[in-house]
Every structure is written in C-alpha cells, then in structure tokens.
Design goal:
about 120 residues, mainly beta, Lipocalin, 4-stranded antiparallel β-sheet, disordered C terminus
Length: about 120
C-alpha cells in the first residue's frame, strides 16, 4: 500500500516512464508513484484549496501521445493544467467554473499545434 492524498479516486499509468499519477479529489496535490518499486516519489501541488465537500481535482486526466505531458484540472479553482513530465513544471489556464469532467482527444494536426 502507498499513502496518497484524501479522496484518491483515479490513477493514470504512464508505462514508458514507470510512473502513475493519482487524482486525490479532496487534496491539493496529486501523488506520483514509481510503478516498478511501488513507492511514492513525491506529491505535486496542483490546486489552491481542498475540502471534503467539493472535488479539488477533476475526474478526467490524460497523457499526450508522446508521453511528455500530463493534463488535468484543478476543478474547484477553475483551472486546466499541463504538467511537463520531464521538469514537473505546471502551466495553468484559468477558465472558471468547476471543471469536474471532460474528454481528451488526440491526433492529427492538433497534437502538433498544442506542443510547440
């Protein structure tokens, strides 16, 4: 067992990097796990606030086809974010509202346009 954040509801596995990133709905951070050693590598702050009443992180996440970026949302903050999986830098775009669910569609020219 690996201790992660409150409200852990989803894990996104990235096999080429031997990691999984957990969605901790009621915490401000996501947990990054080494899937070979089965250990917690670190927690990554993605939201500004959390509570047991609302979801601070969305249900949906995705990984770019080249496994360079992880995408999700800080639901209660109204922010969509991209994590660079090489540097762990986070770029947030504030769109407002409560971004709880969504879909990621990859392919074609969209991938090229979104990754300069």
């Amino acid at each position: 067992m690996i201790e992660t954040g409150k409200g852990n509801g989803h894990s996104t596995f990235i096999p080429g990097r031997n990691i999984a990133i957990t969605t901790n709905h009621n915490s401000t951070y996501m947990s990054v796990i080494n899937t070979i050693e089965h250990t917690l590598l670190f927690n990554l702050e993605v939201a500004t606030s959390a509570s047991s009443i609302f979801k601070s992180q969305s249900h949906t996440s995705g990984v770019s086809m080249d496994s360079k970026y992880f995408y999700s949302a800080a639901s209660h903050d109204g922010a969509f974010f991209r994590i660079n999986l090489d540097t762990w830098d986070i770029i947030k775009t504030y769109v407002g509202g409560n971004i709880l669910m969504g879909s990621f569609v990859w392919g074609g020219d969209t991938l090229k346009a979104s990754h300069p």
